[in-house]
Design goal:
With 128 residues, this protein is an alpha+beta fold. Helices cover 19% and strands 35% of the residues. It has 2 helices and 5 strands, in the order H-E-E-E-H-E-E. Strand 4 and strand 5 form a beta hairpin.
């Protein structure tokens, strides 16, 4: 069934190559053009950034990743920095970014990025 879905994706979608990726928590199954390869899932990469400066107000924690949100005076900030970081991390790298802040103590950003041993060749991609 999965191979048929891939064939349909390539045939009807006009793609030159394609892949269906299945994840069961420990292994990534790559099904491409009727063949299957097991790929090891590695632990995620975790990056933490902590400061001891001014904290983020609790009312703002759920807004800081929204485009154009800023607490700076008009003309001093666009409010795009964290929203762009969020988009790059979540959309381009399938990761997450979270924030926690303790009033008067710190702010802590945690970025989590998945990693595998998957290469372009594993899914049938050939550079042109």
């Amino acid at each position: 069934m999965l191979t048929a879905m891939l064939a349909l994706m390539i045939e009807k979608g006009g793609a030159q190559t394609g892949a269906l990726l299945l994840h069961d928590g420990n292994q990534l199954q790559v099904v491409a053009a009727g063949s299957a390869t097991q790929v090891e899932i590695l632990p995620p990469i975790i990056i933490t950034i902590r400061d001891n400066g001014v904290d983020i107000a609790p009312d703002n924690l759920d807004k800081i990743f929204q485009p154009f949100f800023t607490t700076k005076p008009s003309g001093e900030g666009t409010g795009l920095g964290l929203s762009i970081a969020y988009e790059i991390i979540s959309q381009s790298h399938s990761g997450t970014i979270t924030v926690e802040s303790q009033v008067g103590e710190y702010s802590l950003f945690t970025i989590t990025l998945p990693q595998t041993t998957l290469t372009p060749e594993d899914v049938g991609y050939e550079a042109v």
